[in-house]
Amino acid sequence: MSQFNLKNEKVAVLMGGASAEREVSLMSGSGVLQALQSLGVNAQAFDPSERDMGALKQEGFTRCFIALHGRFGEDGTVQGALELLRIPYTGPGVMASSIAIDKLMTKHIWLADGLPTPAWKKVDSVAATRVAFAELAAAGQPMIVKPAREGSTIGLTKVTSLEQCDAAFALAAGTHDEVLCEQFIAGDEVTVPVLGTGAQARALPVIRIQAPDGNYDYQAKYFTNDTRYLVPCGLPEGEEAHIQQLVLQAFKSLGCRGWARADVMIDATTRQPYLLEINTSPGMTSHSLVPMSAKAAGISYPELCLQVLTLASLDYTAE
After folding, report:
1. Catalytic residue at 149?
2. Domains contained in the chain, number
3. Residue range 6-64, pLDDT digits in tens
4. Catalytic choice (150, 263, 281, 293)
5. How far is CA 187 from CA 74, 217, 266, 268, 280, in A?
6. Is residue 198 domain-shared with residue 291, that is, in the same domain?
7. Looking at 19, 279, 288, 293, which residue is catalytic?
8. Does 195 lie in the same domain as 176?
9. Where in this chain does the record put each ATP-grasp domain (predicted)?
10. Do 106 and 191 share a domain, yes or no?
11. Is 279 a residue of the active site?
């Protein structure tokens, strides 16, 4: 892609979409749109669930800022359409996006690369979920049951007893047909954004999350002010640097570029960090974490949007 020049660009902010995270996407997209326009960027809103993607080419858009979340937004489908349209877009490419949204595939790759992630079982029934609980809920710790392909804790349950397995499986399976049971890691919950591509990729400051009763669910993420976000995170300096390096490895392991945000749990006893998942189209709402971390690094919200936009690219360049 040629050098970014505001005067030559017409930018579509892709927002809304058809996933369970549509409401959050509209909030993210509105923030990004306003920020880019405040910097003089010719940016316009575009909802792929209401308009044909072909209109992007017909109307002369030269770049896309993907503010879509979940299915049909950060799973490689929109990225593939933009590759065919030859319109550079923000965030990871087709393969990295499709892998990252799949928690099972992500874990397989991280494990192959020697990166720590909680133990898990793929289940296809209530009976299998009950067996997984017996295996994963060691030492009285809970188990997490969640769909393999959703974000924002949608369909997720923290299971503390065998009796909860039935409802937990039903909730997750109602969202996606692949269900994941995961060992619960008790300790500090942190998140780390990454900004950049290749050798220029860098991890931004770690944010430590303290949710009411330790329940960082969909409501706590986007619609309440009870959750505390600590940045500086208050972790020992060496521990924070180690987690940032781990997240950078996780980002590169999946072939990500542009930007993303990884969620990590730190075992309270051993202080071992465990990678949970990586979000390839992070939220950009008033409650979102990437802008919060960027601000701690001296990057304003509009500057962050512009930096992400300048990193827009394609997986495949023209012959």
Report:
1. no
2. 3
3. 778 999 999 999 888 899 999 999 999 999 999 999 999 999 999 999 999 999 999 99
4. 263
5. 29, 16, 5, 4, 25
6. yes
7. 279
8. no
9. 107-310
10. yes
11. yes
Look up 261 and say whether it is catalytic: yes
Q: How confident is the model at residue 319 (pLDDT cuts 50, 70, 90)?
A: low
| 62 and 112 within one domain | no
pTM (2 decimals)? 0.90
228 is catalytic: no
Mark whether 300 and 190 lie in a shared domain.
yes
pLDDT of residue 139: 64
Count of residues for the chain? 319
Assess whether 50 carries a catalytic annotation.
no
Start-to-end C-alpha separation, the chain: 13
What pLDDT is recorded for position 12? Answer: 98
Residue 222 known to be catalytic: yes
Query: C-alpha dihedral over 138, 142, 143, 149, to 10 degrees?
Result: -150
